Amino acid sequence: MSQLIEGILRYLSENGNANTLSLSQYFNEEHQKIVGALKSIQAHGDFVIADPIANKKIELTDEGKLIAEKGSHEANVFAEIPDDGIEQSKLMKLPNAKIGFSKAMSAGWIQVDKSCVPPLVKKKVPEIVDTVQEHMNQIIKGDILNISDKDKQEYKKRKLIQEVVVKSFNLTKGPDFSLTLTKLETDLTSDMLLAGSWKKLKFKDYNFEALGAPLESGYLHPLVKVRSEFRQIFLEMGFSEMPTNNYVENSFWNFDALFQPQQHPARDAHDTFFISDPKVSNKFPMDYLERVKKVHSKGGYGSQGYGYDWKIEEAQKNLLRTHTTAVSARMLFKLAQQKEFKPIKLFSIDKVFRNETLDATHLAEFHQVEGLIADYNLTLGDLIGVFAEFFKKLGITQLEFKPAYNPYTEPSMEIFCFHPGLGKWIEIGNSGVFRPEMLLPMGLPEDVCVIAWGLSLERPTMIKYGFNNIRDLIGPKVDLAMIQRSPICRLNK
Ligand SMILES: N[C@@H](Cc1ccccc1)C(=O)O
């Protein structure tokens, strides 16, 4: 670069003026490099005056370049014809024969002899001059003075040439002109200030166009991003959000209200985290609690119940909620206490806790996405219909269901979706119609049905962001840079 800079300055000093395009030919360097050197010179002060000018230039297209090298299509057609002629169909096998044939015909180079069967294409003149090829080669050299405007028009029409605008600079000496550039200072030091040398030194200009260092800012975790996607879908579908701000729940709302018998293995410390302090809850709606006790132990509402000795002590035990269905139970009970039943659609997305064996896909805490619709006479068909709409909004259109079992739903279905990226069916959730043994003790009208479903938030997030190990997504081993790298939007496969 510094050689080029000196060269340009020397050229200017000897010739008084220059144009960057001719300098590019003179130094046999790309024009872009000459312009780069000019910018460096300008950064050092008013060494040169550069006036920008725009020149139109003719350039060959790829087809034009091919002709420059191999000859025009019409010349190639001509060259292919033997003295005693050739069948037209054979001639037409040449590349670009169609255009070549018609141009050679109109140039009067060839003719079709129809007296032969089949007719033959024959030469009409002994030899030709391939002016098109000559012109193409002249254009490459920039020597276009003897190409007529009519020919240029024709080449443009044939898409052999194109006009481009080339920006260049006319250079003349500036007020600070000299043959060498002084080094510009970039820092003002205390030494310069003390010695006063700063007065004589030249400082580099600020570059206000320079991109600054990227700003430090917060980044959203992938789980948060997928959560807001789910939330948006629920809101679009007219659902309201349930208050889920209680990680600590008691067994009554987490299990008993959901008709989950007290001996159920999920209620074991192997599966559930129980709280030691405070160990128990004491405030319950007692008449409802009595009805729950009755439906478990003796039955009712058309059910036989489980026929065991239901104990309040078991229901009082505090725990970290194992599902947000505990919140759904609280909300449905509240709904049943209103004077008049009104259909409702509710959702929540929040943390739940299970005493799981930790592995690549399981953690002891995860997020549950829960939805429910309470209305008159809902059926399994409604549930499937809601899923179709809900998952379509997530870009999932292939769904399948498998009968399942939950103590609180009947019928129950596991939800599977086909994942085209992974090429297989994967389980994404669990669902069902809440049992009368759960809803009627709450006091909901008999003909009200509640359809509900639950998904994990982590699973779809891992699929969308391509994580195989849940510990890379959440928990103490997470690489913080992963959060910065995670795109704001993804293209779903
Ligand atoms: N609570 C269930 C999900 C679910 C919610 C509502 C109805 C049916 C199932 C679970 O934890 O897997």
From TrEMBL:
It catalyses: tRNA(Phe) + L-phenylalanine + ATP = L-phenylalanyl-tRNA(Phe) + AMP + diphosphate + H(+). GO terms for molecular function: ATP binding; metal ion binding; phenylalanine-tRNA ligase activity; tRNA binding. Its EC number is 6.1.1.20. Its cofactor is Mg(2+). InterPro entries: aa-tRNA-synth_II, aa-tRNA-synth_II/BPL/LPL, Phe-tRNA-synth_IIc_asu, Phenylalanyl-tRNA_Synthase, PheRS_DBD1, PheRS_DBD2, PheRS_DBD3. Residues 225-476 form the Aminoacyl-transfer RNA synthetases class-II family profile domain. It is an enzyme of class 6 (ligase). Belongs to the class-II aminoacyl-tRNA synthetase family. Phe-tRNA synthetase alpha subunit type 2 subfamily. This is phenylalanine--tRNA ligase.
